[in-house]
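Hey, quick one: can you model this chain's 3D structure?
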Amino acid sequence: MDASQPEPGGPPQQGGAPAGLVRCGNCGKLNREPAAARGTPRCGNCHQPLPWIVDAGDDTFAEVAEAAAVPVVVDLWAPWCGPCRMVSPALEELARELAGQVKLVKVDVDKAPKLQQRFGVQAIPTLMVLRSGQVIARQAGAMPLPALRDWVQDALHRAARPG
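Sure thing. Here's the predicted structure for all 163 residues.
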């Protein structure tokens, strides 16, 4: 997954890396990041977990989000939505903090009407946590990073408890 050179002309992603590449927070090396994989992405240089932030749509959501080996934070958003643009950096920061533990999947509802309908999205942003493809938590509206962190951690702890 290690990549020594960014792909020319790719849109910027977190850490100034082009889409599909992620910069390791530990050693700074650029790595290729798959949208779907059996495990979780790790740095090809230092082997530390990488934040997993990907886009999904109607045709890719099952493979990218529902089949993920780790819990998935889903951000159902739209580019014209002010609160969506405000919560996005907090979600990306949370994905960096929880690298190797969660995957952040961003779904543009304007481009994914089937997912918007399937999940009954009436307000955006709508945030969900999935574990093994099942919704374990859902929240409509933006939250600051501390509240997001508490919400995700609470959802993960509740899902880990038996019964």
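One thing worth noting: Residues 136 and 158 are 8 Å apart (CA to CA).
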